[in-house]
Amino acid sequence: MDATDRHEALAALTRHIESRYHARHREQLPALVALAERVEDVHFGDEDLPEGLSLLLRRLIGELEVHMKKEELLLFPAIRRGGLPGTAEKVAAMRADHEDHAQEQAEIRRLTRNLTLPGGACRTWAALYAGLEEFLADLSEHIRLENDELFPPFEASTDA
User: Fold this and answer.
1) Domain ranges, residue 108
2) Residue 85 has what DSSP assignment?
3) Tell me, what's the pLDDT at 49?
4) Residue 159 domain-assigned?
5) How far apart are CA 41 and CA 49, in angstroms?
6) Which residues form the Hemerythrin-like domain (predicted)?
7) pLDDT tens per residue, the chain (160 residues)?
8) What is the pTM (predicted TM-score) of this model?
9) Whose CB among 23, 41, 44, 75 lies 3.0–4.6 Å from 90's, allowing a Cys bridge?
10) Cα–Cα distance for residue pair 63/67, rounded to 1 Å
11) In this structure, what DSSP letter does residue 117 have?
């Protein structure tokens, strides 16, 4: 693949990430917060309750929104132009955010006992965990695409 084809492929990947993953996360998270709040209210005191999940998801909405806006307004336009001065630093910042998101994913799994429904769980609880499973899979693939395919050509060389 020549440089022009590579550039076009990476530009297309940024558009795919925005339309598939950014848009989807913006849909998923508010609905998941609402479900988590409902489960936490109805099942308050239940030993299997993923207590604090709604707060974690609400915080994640803010963190992901900031992260996605940085990509949409700063990083992706630079990538579409073939990389501009400072692109490597922006990529490094996005990778650091991805590490934070991985910790949040682990916390979701911890709170939910790896998305294991308790016996007799209501439909809302089941819908919450099904939605979380989809969200976590989407977020993992989103991060993988960026870390493994989009970012490497724009990272600072480690050669001295």
Assistant:
1) 3-154
2) T
3) 92
4) no
5) 10
6) 19-152
7) 676 788 899 999 999 999 999 999 999 999 999 999 999 999 998 889 999 999 999 999 999 999 999 999 999 999 999 888 889 999 999 999 999 999 999 999 999 999 999 998 999 999 999 999 999 999 999 999 999 999 999 986 543 3
8) 0.91
9) 75
10) 6
11) P
| Structure tokens belonging to residue 117 | 């429904």
Distant-in-sequence, close-in-space partners of 22: CB < 8 Å, separation ≥ 6: 68, 71, 72
Residue 58 falls within a domain, yes or no? yes
From 21, 54, 52, 47, select the one nearest 128 (Cα to Cα). Answer: 54
Q: Would residue 89 count as lying in a domain?
A: yes
Cβ–Cβ < 8 Å for 35, 128? yes
Q: How many domains does the chain have?
A: 1
What's residue 50's pLDDT? 94
Joined together, the tokens standing for residue 76 give 């992706």
Whole-angstrom distance, CA of residue 53 vs CA of residue 10: 35
The pLDDT assigned to 5 comes to 83
Structure tokens at 147: 């870390």
What CA–CA distance (Å, rounded) separates 44 from 33? 16
Residue 18 confidence (pLDDT):
96
Report how far apart, in Å, the C-alpha atoms of 2 and of each of 5, 9, 31, 95 are. Answer: 5, 11, 43, 26
125 in Cβ contact with 43 (< 8 Å): yes
Residue 32 included in any domain: yes
